[in-house]
Predict the structure.
Amino acid sequence: MSSSATASLAAASPQRGYWHRNQRKLAPILFLAPGAIMFAVYVVIPIFQSIWISFYDWDGLSQKVWIGFANYTELFHDPAFYVSLKNNIIWLVLYMLAVPAGLAIAIFLNQNVVGIRLYKSLFFFPFVISQVVVGLIFSWFYAPNIGIFPQITEALGLGRIAVLADARYVTYGIIAAGLWPQIAYCMILYLTGLNNVSPDQIEAGRLDGARGWRMLWHVILPQLRPATFIAVVVTIIGALRSFDLISIMTDGGPYGSSRVLSYYMFEEALSEYGYRMGYGAAIAVVLFIIMMFFITGFVWHMVKTEREG
Amino acid sequence: MKFRLKSMLAGAAISALLVSQALAGQLVINTDTSDPAPQKAFEYLIDAFQKANPDIKVKWNKFDHEGYKSAIRNFLTADAPDLANWYAGNRMAPFVNAGLFADVSDVWKENNLDAQLKSALPSMTIDGKQWGVPYTYYQWGIYYRADIFKDKGIEPPKTWDELLAACKKLKEAGITPFAIGTKPLWPAAGWFDYLDLRTNGYQFHMDLTAGKVPYTDPRVKKVFEHWAELVKPGYFIDNAAALDWQDAVPLFAQGKAAMYLMGNFAVDVMKNAGLKEDQIGFVKFPTIDPSIPDAEDAPTDTVHIPAKAKNIPEAKKFLAFLAKPETQTEMNKILGQLPVNNQAKVSDDKFLKQGFDLLSNAAGLAQFYDRDAPAAMAKAGMEGFQHFMAQPDDIDQILKQLDRAEKQAYK
């Protein structure tokens, strides 16, 4: 894209009046060019480089060795890969809870009461703080000796459950931490959406006798569709790129049971005991394919609604 | 060596920012001395070197300890300093094999270091050449609460049976025998190292970490059987996988746990947690098979010259200075660790004196699992150890996984 822009500019300079004749065509290209160049250099080209590296055995320092699809066949037999994939799916499914939860809180907060702004800010607060801080807060919450959570489970007669040390619960524990800010995000999307809900339609619904759930389902939700769409998109992407919380809270442990693909890729390619760039790249390619599956779906959906609209 | 700080990514960013401009007569040294004691030791070293060589100025770039591990790969290839600190054994092998560290065999020869740094010679040698100079190491062993032992009438265990008996007695008294935090994985590897060194001996351990023996070998299984004798009765604290090694120290200080298998760097943390020196005892890891001579873990810290260094002759002068007995005596006094140079003096500290005796009489010195085994194997292995400590019944599955990892790592 960028090269075509500069090429046409170069070709344009000797002919006088070309700029004036083609201004309307060239202006958008010029405006797009900086972004497009950045996107190409930092996103598109690295994608192809990663795919390329995934065919090599390379530690990042010595000579690359071409090994074809060996990284992928190894991945196919790697139990750690399946653990990561499974956890990614758990993340995807449970993270979607953020959408209805965000909607519920938004509806709850969408009223005119004294001090509602304060409540709104309090609910929005977790989205503002860094994921690292969220991870630390939840690590303390779960900590076996000092945390509140083990004391709660003990009071309930379940014994002291150390969520982050138990392979059975660890992923759910991290997802719970991740949901906290994600719900806040969805809530804000819905609060803005609710501002645009047309009072006429609610009035009309009332006259037709709709209230409660039926009102929500048939009158309000359809009007919130754009907000729902965005909430679903950001939540799915958020679930697939989950990394920081895992790194802060467990380092993928205990014994690798809380890793997801993005964290496993980092471990293999860049962490202290990793430096298998090719293998890490192969994991990245798999994650990329999964992401593409969803993103293509969204783009297709957007194009469709745009045509209809 | 492994104090945990969360900023691997930050380190990579720092390395990109630090542009070291070397001038003639100026040496650039990069270190990972983010902890106070190592920082002071290097302050002393650089100061003393500049006094001895007034014509050379040293520029010192300090990195965060964890971030350094990713930073070093960047700066060795892109913008090499004249000196960089790192670790011995297999941890330096990737840099040596990639041609990023300079051969410093001549420094060893000219300064008679083969004799003076004898104990570290094998771990500094690859392809018959030396690739750096070691300046410190420290002992590993069991630190125990001397007051609790005295109170319960327990003698520090010398054999495996005595250890089991001591554990039983402590457990009955409501005290967990061993503190440990396996969140950073490596503390579990200390257990594996010692159990293997005591069960199968030094040579076997070296062969195993060199990938010459499969993990499904019955001798490896025997190591885990001994380990299970401690894991299954609950002789380790609960939920170790959620704790950092420092998080387990308060349990030791509060008397909830009575022993801790650790490196000597833990003593400082224990004292900071409120223990007095006479409350802490140190005992060598007990003998399991009397026919096997006792080898020890003694991780060694080193300084290297990157192959792309700009002032190699001056850097070699620096290494020779670092190797001198006086330098190592002073540095280790500050570090609270042991000098590698056998002409150096050990500081007057009861743990260091014990450690010095221990290491001088050892049948062999291992570096530590994550330095003896290559990175990919170390990670899989330590994950397996952590898994075993949580689910000892999964042992066959764990060993199969380790076998698979070994085949991949030593291709």
